[in-house]
Amino acid sequence: MHFQWYPGHMTKAKRMMQENIKLIDLVIELVDARVPLSSRNPDIDELGKNKSRLIVLNKADLADEKKNDLWYEHFTSQGFMVVSVNSKKGSGIKMVEQGIQNACKEKMEKDRKRGILNRPVRAMVVGIPNVGKSTFINALAKKSVTKTGNKPGVTKGKQWIRLNKNVELLDTPGILWPKFEDQQVGLDLAFIGSIKDEILQTEELAYHLIDFITANYSGVLAKKYEIKEEGKSYEILEQIAVNRHALLRGNELDIRKAAMLLLDDFRNGRLGRITLEVPEVV
Ligand code: G4P
């Protein structure tokens, strides 16, 4: 689940992406609905200019529904087509198909004016590691198609999946790398489990998450762990350790275990649907 980035990976991934994107009419960009900005890479706007664009708010099932709506409005107002999706269950995939059809219309109209007829629209899925690209492609293709090739450095011939008579999808997703330099981005990606916890200590990460949840989703921790949401974040984590019997030898509290438990509950949606970023109001 965790990914690690090395400069070599990034360069290779970028090169592959630049090569593949030339062949593409429509870029389907997956972001994590819980952190839609932190899981985006701004380079995609440059890479995808002059292409039709569709943003998929993936893992929408784990994100706050009201915030999904805010993000829908946000990206729509920027001129993107936007769809909320749960790739694991396949919900929202029909809307994606419709979005692709709309993009097709534009493309076919352009082609028609240039005298090109019946050329299928070619689409490519892009996004940061672990955002759900393979799961999404499989849901859209309605079969398991992505095996290898979804890792930098693993090469295989380009293959196109025929979605219908108008659309072809590249079976190898384009890998984008997140903007690690921004501290908040690093934190957000660590929360959702996309980068190794070691970047921050697990306990430290849990304290940040507790601060966020108590401030924005008050009562959630109290209900889940039958604790009082009072005091500092370390006191709350101690209560979670007590509730979950996270103990070391000699009955000392195992704070690291409690932190991992909390992060795991959050990442798997067991704390309910929580979104970490909201669009800025301008
Ligand atoms: P990638 O190709 O972009 O690297 O991502 P991939 O499809 O491998 O998905 C990464 C993880 O995210 C997988 O979980 C996958 O099941 C999960 N996932 C993808 N889309 C969704 C979604 O819309 N909702 C939810 N809840 N999860 C999603 P995993 O823990 O690595 O494996 P597993 O739990 O499926 O076994």
From TrEMBL:
InterPro entries: G_CP_dom, GTP-bd, GTP-bd_ortho_bundle_sf, GTP-bd_ribosome_bgen, GTPase_MTG1, P-loop_NTPase
Compartments, as annotated in UniProt: Cytoplasm
Pfam families according to UniProt: MMR_HSR1 (PF01926)
Keyword Chaperone applies: no
Keywords: Cytoplasm, GTP-binding, Nucleotide-binding
Family of the protein in this entry: Belongs to the TRAFAC class YlqF/YawG GTPase family. MTG1 subfamily.
Purpose: Required for a late step of 50S ribosomal subunit assembly. Has GTPase activity.
Protein name per its UniProtKB record: Ribosome biogenesis GTPase A
Organism of provenance: Aequitasia blattaphilus
Upper classification of the organism: Bacteria, Bacillati, Bacillota, Clostridia, Lachnospirales
